[in-house]
Structure formats: C-alpha cells, structure tokens
Amino acid sequence: MDPHTATENNATITLAAGQKYDIKLEYFEATGDAVCTLSWTSPSQAKEIIPQSQLFAASNLYAASVGETAKTAYSFVDSIGVNTHLRYYDTSYGNFSLVEQRLQELGIRHIRDGGSDPTWIQRVNELGTKGIKSTIVIDPMIGVGPSSAYDTKPPGYTIHDLIKNRLSTSVDAVEILNEFDINYANGYSYSGQALTDSTWITYVRNFAQDTYNSLKSDPATQNIAIIGPSFVYSDSTSKVGTMSQWVDYGNMHPYNNPSNPGDGNTQQDLANRSQAFTNRPMMATETGYFTGTTSNRTVSETVQGKYLPRMFLENFNQGITRTFSYELMDQRSNSNNSEDNFGILRADGSPKPAFTAEKNLISLLNDSSNNFTPGTLNYSLGGNTQNVHHTLLQKSNKDFYLVLWVETASTDQTITQNVTLNLSTPITQATTYLPNQSTNAAGQYTSPTQLSLNVPDYPLVVKLTPA
Q1: 362/104 Cα distance (integer angstroms)
Q2: What's the predicted TM-score (pTM) here?
Q3: In the chain, how many H helices and how many E strands?
Q4: Helix (H, G, I), strand (E, B) or coil at 192
Q5: Residue 204 to residues 188, 223, 249: CA-CA distances in angstroms?
C-alpha cells in the first residue's frame, strides 16, 4: 500500500434484506492521521456511514464451534439401518433376489427383521454372507421366545437355540418384542394364561431378563447385543420401570411424519424413552416417512428424499447409536394404504429419491476402518446460518467431511441459504457434493481459506483434505 490523501473507493454488491454478510475492512497508517469510514448507499438509501445497529460481532454470525473434534465417518455409516420383512412372501419382499441386490446397492450394514421359518433363516444367513447383519425381533407370535413358558407358536425356538445353532454368523443384535404396549392383547400368554392390562408389564420385564440371562450365560452368544422393547404410548416408559440391567441398548420409535426430523420431537422422545434404560445408549429401531395418498401425515417422495438423510444425521448428532428407517420397500403398489408406502423403494423395486440420496451419502462417507482417533477442524460458519445444522466426520485417511443442511419444513421446492465456511485449519483441497443428486463433485477448490456455499434443505457434503 502507498501513502495517499483521503480517497473514496467504492464497489457494487447485491444484498438480500435480512441476511448477514461477512465484511473484512483493511487499512494501514504510515505517518500522520489515518481516516477510515465504511458507508453504504442504494437507490432507496442515501449514502451514510453504516449504522452500528446494522453491524454484528463475529460471535453472532458464526453458528458452528471453532476447533470441533470430528466423529468417524465409519461410525456414522454404521449408525444407518433399514427395516425389512423378509418373511412377507406375498408382498414385494417375495422377490428376494431383488431385495438382496438393492440392499447391496444401498451399502448399509444392518437390517431389522423377524421370523423363524426355514426360508426366512436362509435369507438372513444369505445376507450375512454379504456383510449385512440382522437385528431380529424376538416375538413368541412369530415363533421365538426366551423359553417354552412364553407359549411360543411353531416352530417354537428359544432365542438361544435360534442364534447359536441357526444364525450364528448373521445376527448382531436381538430386540425384545415390538411396541408391546399396544400388542400384548393380541394372543400373548404365559404358561397358558392370557395377558391382561395388569400382567403385561411383568411379562415384558421377565421376557427381557430371561432373554438376557439365556444369551449372556453362553460364550457362543454373549456378544449378541440385546435391545430393549419399544413402546407407543408415552406413559409406558414410567409403567415398565427401569430395565437397563437386562439390555445393552434402549429403544425408541420416534415417528415424526410429516414434520421435519429436527423439529424437536426426537429429543423429547429420547428424553422420555431413555428413562427406562438409564445408563444404556439408545437405538431407534423404527422411524420414517410414508408417501401414500390417504393421510394428512404423508409426504411426497421428494420430501421423503430430503428428510430421511437428515433424520440419520440428526439422530447421529443426538447420540443415537443406530437408526433403522422404516422400511426398504413399499409392500404393495397401493397408494391408498399408508402401511404399504413407507419404502425407499417402490413395490416394483425402483428407487425413490430417498434411496438414491441414502445410497449416495453412504457411498461418499463410507470408510473401511474405525480404528483411529479423529482430529480437530478449526473453522467457523458465517452468513445466513439460521437453522443450518451440521455433522463433522473424518475418515481414516484424515480427510474431513463437513455435512451441512438447512433443518426446516421442506416442500418439493429446494430451500437454500448462503453460508460462508471460514477455514483456519490449512486445507489443500476442498470438494463439495450434493448426494441427493449424485456422487459427482459439485465444486472443487484449491487451498481455500473461505468458501461461499449455498446450503440446501438436504445434505451438502464438503470434503476437506488437510495440509
């Protein structure tokens, strides 16, 4: 810079009303007095020094932490699961070869299912050989219980026998019953005595204890994770009391459709359901959005494609160990039945936007190793950060992946907000991706210190290779 007398420099930029922008003002003083002012003008605004009321400290601009420690990308991908119905042979799941193909394309490692017949066992074991492990629901009404006292329907397996002798390499977790507070009256009995409003709580507690003791007492099955029962009614949590001594994970079904996944419902459900499992980590073994036509809770396929990836990210941020979306495929081509339209695949196996978005997100973030300590990224977010949520991940090769999205109620139209990513950690290469569209790079930047990003209401992935 050269010394000079007072000089006015100007330039034109486009500003949107109500949106904050980063301003960097540089000046120097060589000798004598220095003068520096910052003014603005527009067709509707006379030139004036920008009022202090229109300037904001950096602490009000930046929503993200500086010096944030990442979580492993492997752990995020491992937190993603999907419900299937492999024994629903008269539905779309009857085409098992297509189910298997789509599961492998999706790239997930975990499904949730339940059954006991030979064909179902064969299918679960087949998926196990492909690296897709099953969480199975234990239920006497579908042929599996802790012991014969639970009046189990044929084939009447005990859970220990089923796991040890028939599914030894295919199952990594078992789940105690399903939404039992609304299902206990559907034919369940213990030693010939039908369950009632006053006996179902004792039944479910004994069921959990007997399952735990059966599996944990044998070295061959003691590493199978035990997930607690799920409930529908909010007061069931207090009714059943603490069950943490008999489970490895708590359970919840935080359905929130048609509301956006980050509207606070999951936090409320987590606070309620975790009371029954106190010191245990939580799983969400069912949650999702349906795309039928007969309910005011339905969402479009486009919105489902935005919400489900955000749901996995939001739940991961809340510390939920694993989330199983409901479900893989529409059971039938019947838009008038909501139960037939929860799939991320249509009944003919064709992908909905949610399948494509999840597949691409998993593909971008998948990693072969979880055996490293993730590092810290020094950064901040500026601009319009209202409702902008994020997840910071790192792969074993040390690349960071910052996932950003606008957490808001969505429609078929894309909502975007301009966000500035300021990087203090030296970065040699930055690449952006929009997995709802493809796995191709949307933008590439060499040695950036600042990126201007249009963050949509679906994930924007920013890959950052540190120097």
Answers
A1: 12
A2: 0.86
A3: 11, 25
A4: coil
A5: 11, 22, 16
What are the φ and ψ backbone dihedral angles of 190, each rounded to 5 degrees? Answer: -130, 120
Angle between helices 159-166 and 200-216 (to 10 degrees): 30
E strand or H helix that includes residue 125? helix 118-129
β-bridge mates for residue 418, sequence order: 454
Determine the Cα–Cα distance for residues 305 and 262; give it in Å rounded to an integer: 15
**Maximum Cα–Cα distance for the chain, whole Å?**
99
Comparing 3 with 101, the larger pLDDT belongs to 101
User: Quick one: 216 exposed, middle or buried, by C-beta within 10 A (0-12, 13-18, 19+)?
Assistant: middle
DSSP 372-418: S---EE-EEEEES-TTEEEEEEE-TTS-EEEEEEE-S---SS--EEE
Q: What are the tokens at 282?
A: 């939580």
β-strands 376-377, 68-69 pairing? antiparallel
Amino acid at position 296, single letter: N
pLDDT tens-digit map of 49-82 = 566 546 654 443 444 446 999 999 999 999 999 9
Reading the block at residue 219, the tokens are 């070295």
CA angle at 339 for the pair 335 and 340, rounded to the nearest 5°: 45
The two three-digit tokens of residue 209, written as one number: 């204890």
Mean pLDDT for 283-311 is 95
Strands 427-433 and 71-72: unpaired
Residue in the structure block whose two tokens are 């220095």: 34
Q: How far is 221 from 226, CA to CA, in rounded Å?
A: 11
* DSSP string computed for 15-66: --TT------------SS------EEEETTEEEEEPPGGG---HHHH--SPS
DSSP alpha helices (H): ranges in 318-394? 353-365
| Cα gap 80→99, rounded to integer Å | 17
Positive or negative, the CA dihedral 176, 182, 183, 184 is: positive
Helix axes 353-365, 96-106, angle to 10 degrees: 50
- Region 288-305: mean pLDDT is 93
Q: Measuring CA to CA, how many Å separate 113 from each of 154, 240, 440?
A: 18, 24, 33
Q: Is the dihedral of CA 244, 250, 254, 260 positive or negative?
A: positive
> Which residue would you say has higher pLDDT here, 429 or 8?
429
Name the DSSP class of 228. P
Q: How far is CA 448 from CA 21, 323, 466, in A?
A: 19, 35, 11
Nearest Cα neighbor of 36 from 76, 4, 11 is 4
Q: How far apart are CA 82 and CA 322, in angstroms?
A: 10
